[in-house]
Write a structure and sequence with these properties.
Elements: E1 4-9, E2 13-21, E3 27-34, H1 36-46, E4 51-58, H2 61-72, E5 76-83, E6 90-95, E7 101-106, H3 122-126, E8 128-134, H4 141-156, E9 160-164, H5 175-188, E10 191-195, H6 196-203, H7 208-219, E11 223-227, E12 233-237, E13 240-244, H8 258-273, H9 280-297, H10 310-326
Parallel strand pairs: 1-4, 1-8, 2-6, 4-5, 8-9, 9-10, 10-11
Antiparallel strand pairs: 2-3, 6-7, 11-12, 12-13
Helix pairs in contact: 1-8, 6-7, 8-9, 9-10
């Protein structure tokens, strides 16, 4: 038995999201805890899984706020390091009318880039069923070395590996380097979650099925989830392709955290069934639950602190099914 269900490594930062206009007619930004890996862990905690985070924040007011919020979600923070010299990474998120986002980062450097191998408690990696990471923990040499060491350690201890490219072009000096690091992540993972835009970026192919086929041909990834925004999601496993419709939501505010919520839900399903036990029904049920949870999170500001619980998601699905039957 492992102590943790999921351990994740990566960025923990403050997302400043638009939240109205001041009395002086200036835009107001709200400081929301964020960072894809911790968003994933927060949702997993809501679903009853035991998690731990590996990362670094600045020893400043933002870093202390992030540490406290992550701990409040039930995530183990014993390997969250406070950097004495480099400040916590900040991101400003601007939201389009349809809820889509653009990001502007204050991270040159940011504390999350300063994580190194010496900072890591390898016992967490040896005691987890699954290790999760993304490409942003490979944007600087030291944290890239720490990431690769963590992947190797978790693998050698028998953990499944999951990867989400989470492409953020402004954080890469050259996009060719981003593509190289994404290739590493895909080469190491058992479970890949990748968006339609990331498939096009990485493979040069806009068609989802054709792009995934190219990835499978080169990397033989056991399980791939492709997210397609308003077109839903697909899963590819053992020669099967399963597609699930989206839950479009008129109350959508912004899409921050939707992909992370999706990632957490499918990982939760895999932890319950295992990779070998998946069939088309399992995959469809996982996609449906993940699509519903992702839809809910788009109606809430931020992500890490406001993840829905399993009952919330089930009720949401039942409500949609009920409204469809009435129609």
């Amino acid at each position: 038995m492992k102590k943790y269900d999921v351990v994740a490594l990566g960025e923990l930062l403050v997302d400043f999201t638009e939240n109205g206009i001041s009395t002086q007619m200036n835009p107001v930004f709200e400081a929301n805890p964020g960072g894809a890996p911790c968003n994933v862990l927060s949702m997993l905690q809501k679903l009853g899984d035991k998690t731990a985070f590996i990362g670094k924040v600045g020893k400043d007011s933002f870093g202390e706020m992030l540490r406290d919020v992550v701990a409040e979600q039930g995530i183990d923070t014993k390997n969250l390091v406070m950097d004495e010299n480099v400040p916590t990474t900040l991101a400003f998120v601007q939201t389009a009318p349809d809820g889509d986002r653009s990001f502007f980062f204050y991270r040159n450097p940011g504390a999350d880039m300063m994580l190194n191998m010496e900072d890591i408690d390898v016992s967490l990696l040896q005691k987890t069923r699954l290790f999760h990471f993304g490409s942003l923990s490979m944007t600087a040499r030291g944290v890239e070395e720490a990431t690769k060491m963590s992947v190797e350690t978790a693998k050698s201890a028998g953990a499944l590996i999951s990867f989400d490219p989470n492409l953020r072009p402004p954080l890469w000096e050259h996009l060719d380097v981003a593509k190289e690091k994404i290739a590493y992540g895909i080469s190491q993972c058992d479970i890949l979650k990748i968006s339609d835009d990331e498939i096009a970026f990485f493979t040069g192919i806009r068609d989802i099925d054709a792009g995934v086929s190219k990835i499978l041909e080169q990397y033989h990834t056991p399980l791939i989830f492709a997210t397609m925004g308003k077109r839903g999601s697909r899963a590819y496993h053992a020669g099967n392709r399963v597609e699930c419709e989206p839950f479009l939501n008129e109350d959508t505010i912004e899409t921050t955290g939707a992909g992370d919520t999706f990632m957490a839900c499918v990982l939760h399903g895999i932890l319950r069934s295992g990779l070998d036990g998946l069939d088309e029904k399992n995959l469809y049920d996982m996609l449906r639950f993940a699509n519903a949870a992702s839809s809910i999170i788009t109606t809430r500001k931020g992500a890490l602190k406001v993840m829905p619980g399993e009952e919330d998601v089930r009720k949401f699905i039942q409500g949609r099914e009920g409204s469809q039957s009435v129609q």
